[in-house]
Design brief:
Elements lengths: L2 E6 L2 H14 L6 E5 L12 H11 L5 E5 L3 H12 L2 H4 L2 E4 L3 H13 L4 H9 L1 H11 L20 E7 L8 H12 L4 E6 L7 E2 L3 H5 L8 E7 L3 H13 L26 E3 L1 E4 L2 E8 L15 H30 L1 H4 L1 H10 L1 H14 L3 H17 L4 H4 L2 H16 L12 E5 L4 H5 L6 E6 L7 H9 L3 E3 L13 E5 L4 E4 L3 H23 L5 E2 L5 E8 L2 H9 L5 E5 L13 H15 L4 E4 L28 H5 L2 H14 L5 E5 L5 H20 L10 E5 L2 H5 L1 H5 L4 E4 L1 H8 L18 H16 L3 E4 L10 H7 L3 E4 L4 H9 L3 H11 L5 H10 L6
Parallel strand pairs: 1-2, 1-3, 3-4, 11-12, 12-13, 13-14, 18-19, 18-25, 19-20, 20-21, 21-22, 22-23, 23-24, 24-25
Antiparallel strand pairs: 5-8, 6-7, 6-8, 9-16, 10-14, 11-15, 15-16, 17-18
Helix pairs in contact: 1-5, 1-11, 2-3, 5-6, 8-10, 8-13, 11-13, 11-14, 11-17, 13-17, 14-15, 15-17, 21-22, 22-24, 24-25, 30-32
């Protein structure tokens, strides 16, 4: 198949074009990027070697088409061809077509099976198609103009009517599931809220679906037109039947009796009780950076559209990073808030409207983006439903993120040096997810509500919050002492001693109650028939280990060491790593500590390491142990630090992304070399330290018996294993719903791994998100796992769940689950099984 190479002075621009083109053909065409230079001060430029590497990476006898912007890009491309063998040079074509339109036209032509000359012709003709389209459009189009696209009259239209049973209707997370499900099918999906008598809207638009204002009990009409209409409607019906995975019980719901503002007595500030708990600390003001933009005329709308696409691409990467961190810190259910933000950035109606404003009005990207975001926000504000009105915060949050990227503004600093109460007008979900509960002891804002996404996150983090207080609080000087009670919705500025005494007594009583509630979490997790299962914690920082121990962790089953390497200009030194590993081991007080070696590369690149051309499939690329074995200096430094920290502690090494016995043996040779160097230098270490591997690719499952003979333990990573088994990217909202660790295919892989490990006499744990899902607890017990490793906040619940089951019952559930044909049926099986009372 023909390969495509994009050459540009701007790496950000090229990646945006690559992303857009790849989406047009679902990644079926090989597209490489050669853009920018490795100079932090002046990153704009082109490098012939980069271009050569890009051409080589996608080379095919069918030909390679190279698209370039101006200036040195052309010279670099011409020079790069000279590096190729003469037989290959004749199959590389430099094309003068426009970068964005040319790339899109070219990949579509390649996917259609055209030859290289036809592909070039399509690329060159891309501007003609756009000019024709612009010539016939006589009026500006709006979001509304795309509500009802033209239907295919030759295809039958099917329709269903469904009653919504979700407690909060189609709020952000269910709406996101609806949209991603609808987008999986070729058929055109339209939906109408019959209860509110709305117009039909597009089912692939997150904003249009959400603004239908669907609440519990509302009736929807859903139509599908196309060849797979029946399948599409069946999938949507299943979502509703499964209640979108929600149990109709509010997670982390605010105190039921304190949502309203209560009257204040003298000396008090009264507000909304949003998150329970007492906080007494100096105040620190937080002023978010609100980007102000100016609209101006542009002569080259193509460039503005490319700028906007590049900013959206980067925003998507940032939100995915926030989602990953939030999943660890607050759990997957609450982190799913950011799924809706990702879908907002992919909303075709929104993107079409922004593009039309740029090309129709010849205005800059910032102004066009702000206009469409404001239009969506206004549509939310005018809804009668107060819960949906609050989703404006999410719209503004993601809108401002893109504007910051377009204008080059950095986000406001939220890192506190000392513990404090944060005072602000309001906080966005992204702001709140970045808070450190050890430093932000409380939140006091003049706006906000008890059901906003920011408040949900604050409650999950355990940060007391009082919202909607008088604006006079914004005039307090930093350092002013404040006390707040998140249960009653009251705050006190420079409180008198008797107030402090009352609050201190209430705080002590609350802490005592919390300690009693956590008491069972510090007991072993034992099933009803006497089998003990270790419950460890997944952590990614020193702060996490303190939370883990307080939550009852019996050790750390996964220390993600990537936090040491990211957000810095160079790799951490041996001494820096040693200090952190020793500090974490010290907090654990001789509990087991499993340290996973560096798992970057591919989808998690290190900015200070040159990794060559971008990878078309980073999850299948140069990552984990593959990366480390190619960076021996980096790898040996980490191994030395881990070995040195092992003295006097229960430290184990775990290797990520193992797919072959060769990789394990190669690592053991390197480990032996490091041990010999330490011995020669007279440096102590635990010579008997155990070495294990992550089982997270199907290859390692297939040869689990061979791998078990090489290592001391297995840890199954169901997050990656699920996406590899199901061939679905879990970060891609359109297919993420396929990545379900309870799918029988994944469960059979887990069973096979456990059987191989136990046959070899080694232990096996599970450190994926499945371990924290208490619905899955009987399955994991029945499969025979020795250890579960979960995020610290989930430990008490997982231990309680283990204590409710016995192994015989669990094994019976597993036997049935392995015979099911889908994850949905496995979940139904578990839900209908006899579960003993807690």
């Amino acid at each position: 198949m023909i390969g495509i190479v994009i050459v540009s002075h701007s790496k950000q621009l090229a990646l945006g074009v690559q992303e857009l083109a790849a989406q047009m053909v679902q990644g079926k065409v090989s597209i490489a990027v050669a853009a920018g230079i490795e100079d932090p001060e002046n990153p704009l430029g082109t490098d012939p070697i980069q271009v050569y590497e890009a051409i080589a990476s996608v080379f095919s006898d069918d030909g390679v088409l190279v698209l370039m912007d101006l200036g040195s890009a052309l010279l670099s491309a011409e020079m790069a061809i000279e590096f190729l063998p003469e037989t290959q040079q004749q199959k590389v074509y430099l094309c003068e077509a426009p970068l964005v339109e040319g790339a899109i036209a070219a990949v579509v032509a390649v996917a259609a099976g055209r030859d290289i000359h036809q592909v070039m012709a399509e690329a060159r003709g891309a501007l003609l198609a756009k000019a024709t389209q612009l010539g016939v459009v006589s009026r500006p189009l709006s979001l509304v103009s795309h509500n009802t696209p033209t239907t295919n009259l030759e295809s039958p239209t099917r329709e269903i009517r469904l009653i919504v049973s979700n407690r909060l209707g189609l709020h952000a997370r269910p709406a996101a599931q609806f949209v991603t499900t609808a987008a999986r099918f070729q058929s055109q999906i339209l939906v109408r809220n019959l209860t509110r008598n709305t117009e039909l809207v597009r089912g692939d638009s997150i904003n249009q679906v959400t603004t239908l204002g669907v609440r519990q009990g509302h009736e929807l009409l859903i139509t599908a037109t196309g060849s797979d209409a029946d399948e599409a409607l069946a999938a949507l019906r299943a979502l509703f039947a499964n209640n979108f995975g929600e149990d109709n019980v509010a997670l982390n719901s605010p105190p039921a009796l304190h949502h309203e503002v209560t009257p204040a007595i003298h000396g008090e500030l009264s507000g909304i009780a949003a998150s329970a708990g007492i906080a007494i600390a100096p105040v620190v003001h937080y002023q978010p950076t609100h980007v102000l933009i100016t609209e101006y005329h542009v002569d080259e709308p193509d460039i503005e559209w490319q700028r906007l696409q590049a900013a959206i691409h980067t925003a998507r990467q940032e939100i995915q990073a926030v989602f990953s961190q939030a999943s660890l810190q607050i759990g997957d259910a609450e982190a799913a808030i950011f799924d809706a933000q990702l879908l907002f950035l992919e909303d075709p109606v929104l993107l079409e409207a922004a593009k039309e404003r740029i090309f129709e009005h010849h205005i800059n990207a910032e102004a066009a983006w702000q206009a469409v975001v404001d239009k969506v926000a206004t549509s939310y504000r005018t809804l009668e439903d107060s819960y949906l009105q609050e989703r404006v915060d999410d719209i503004v949050d993601v809108g401002q993120r893109v504007l910051r990227l377009l204008t080059g503004n950095a986000p406001a600093n939220l890192h506190l040096e000392e513990p404090a109460i944060l005072v602000a007008t309001d906080l966005t979900p992204s702001d709140t997810a970045r808070l450190d509960p050890t430093k932000v002891l409380g939140i006091c804002t003049t706006l906000g509500s008890a059901t906003s996404h920011s408040t949900i996150i604050a409650r999950t983090l355990g940060i007391p919050a009082v919202l909607g207080v008088d604006a006079q609080v914004l005039h307090l000087a930093d350092g002013t002492l404040m006390a707040l009670d998140g249960e009653s919705g009251k705050a006190w500025v420079e409180p008198e001693s008797h107030i402090l005494d009352l609050l201190a007594a209430k705080q002590e009583a609350w802490q005592t109650a919390q300690q009693e509630a956590r008491a069972t979490a510090h007991q072993p997790a034992i099933t009803r028939d006497g089998r003990q299962v270790s419950v460890f914690a997944n952590i990614g920082s020193i702060n996490d280990v303190q939370v883990a121990v307080a939550s009852g962790a019996e050790g750390v089953g996964l220390l993600r060491t990537e936090f040491l390497y990211l957000d810095r200009r160079s790799a951490p030194t041996e001494e820096e790593q040693l200090e952190v590993y020793q500090a974490i081991a010290q907090v654990l007080d001789n509990r087991p500590l499993i340290i996973r070696t560096l798992d970057v590369g591919g989808d998690k690149p290190l900015p200070y390491l040159r990794v060559g051309f971008p990878e078309a499939n980073p999850f299948l690329g140069w990552r984990g142990i593959r990366f480390c074995l190619d960076h021996l200096d980096l790898f040996k430094t980490q191994l030395r630090a881990i070995l040195r920290a092992s003295v006097g502690h229960q430290i184990k090494i775990m290797l990520p992304m193992i797919a072959s016995v060769t990789e394990v043996r190669a690592t053991k040779v390197i480990l032996g070399e490091v041990q010999a160097e330490l011995n020669q230098a007279g440096i102590s270490f635990d010579a008997a330290m155990k070495v294990g591997i992550m089982v997270e690719v199907p290859a390692s499952v297939a040869i689990a018996d061979q791998l078990a003979a090489e290592v001391d333990f297995f840890s199954i990573g169901t997050n990656d294993l699920s996406q590899y088994v199901m061939a679905s990217d879990r970060t891609n909202p359109r297919v993420a719903n396929l990545v379900d660790a309870l799918h029988p295919a994944v469960l059979r892989m887990v069973q096979q791994t456990i059987q191989a490990a136990h046959a070899a006499g080694i232990s096996v744990g599970l450190c994926g998100e499945l371990a924290a899902d208490t619905l899955a607890t009987p399955i994991l017990l029945g499969l025979g796992l020795d250890e579960l490793s979960v995020n610290p906040q989930s430990i008490p619940g997982v231990k309680q769940a283990i204590a409710r089951f016995c192994i015989v019952e669990s094994e019976a559930i597993v036997a049935s689950a392995l015979q099911q044909d889908s994850a949905i049926h496995v979940r139904e099986l578990i839900s209908t099984s006899v579960i003993p009372p807690a």
